[in-house]
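hey can u check if this looks right to u? its 408 residues, i copy pasted from the old doc so theres a chance i mangled smth
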Amino acid sequence: MLILSGIALMFVNGLFFYSEAGYSYLVQYPTGKQIAELRPGYHLKWWGEVVPWKKVVTVKFISNEEKEQDGQQYSGNRVTIPVRFNDAVKAELALSARFRLPENPDLFLKMALEFRHQDNLVNGSLIPSCMEIAKNSARLISAQEYIAGRGGELENAVLDQLAHGMYILDAEEMKPNGTDSIKSINDSRTIENRTLVRYNVKKRTNSDGTIMRKKHPIAEYGIVVSQATVEDVNPEQRFKELLGKQRDAAAQASIEKERAKQAEYEKQRIIAEGEAAKASIKVNMEKEQITALITMETEKKREQVNVEKHKLELQSARLKAQEVKVLADAEAYKKKRVMEADGALEMKLQTFEKVHSAYAQAIAGTQLVPTTYIGGNGEKGTPNAMDFINIATANMAKDLDVKIKQKK
């Protein structure tokens, strides 16, 4: 039974094989017939040879240190690709690419018969194509341009050439004028002067304007490039040192720019403060001028008011004077007419009254009755005061032209 079971198992294993998902198979029958089996499941092989192929092949170019840390097994795992940019800067390029093998049985059979084994495809076609295309793509730009942000162009060039064929390039050496200079990306100052060898690289084109390409097996066998990534570019040490100086110079330039901006800001601030102070002084002076003008206008109006007031007072005084004069003239005229009518009797009487009042005051205390009297002719005696009064009164009445009747 064991022998029969072993014979049956060998018969089954020789007659059938199991196709795993994610693999394609090249089946070669004992008769020499070869077929491609791309479907998963059990299939007849008639004791023929079955060669498995992964449907997706990943090729990576990484450094030895990264290879040890990665730990994953890929169909192709090589060290970084040495490239040279068009400014003669050397670099190590890390690249990863994913390839999908053809799903068409005829194309797969053609590829499988050509390379016989997947390792032959990877080592004999995919890896050399990736390396050649990476080197060709690096020639399109300079290391400075890559550092400046044109790395996407490098990656696009790699993907495009893997999918459609490698560019045919024309390179023309550019002779520097005297001594060329490597300059900072962010600053125009020279970092280090040295003679550079640069190339003007252009893609050769056909008569219809399309890019002229060199075909490679990737496109010929229907292999699809699903992904191509430039993971890292490690330039040579000399360029790194230049980049370090460049970075330091850029940082210093940035600091100087900030200082210049700060100085300009301070300058503008001082100017602004000066303008503000000047404007404040101007405003204050204008306020003082306006105040002075208002004061002058006020004084002027006050003087005008005073002048008008004085004019009114003068006019009023004149009117009053005229009034007084008119009244005086009227009074004088009245008195004159009265005096003309009664001979100024009233005044004369007033004068007469004043004189008699004076006489009365003068003889106040005087003895009017004589103490001694001697009669007869030639006799002496003391005059009577009444005689003096009578005489004075008579004289005054004569002067006043008043007739006074005396009782005998």
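DSSP finds nine helices and 16 strands in the chain.
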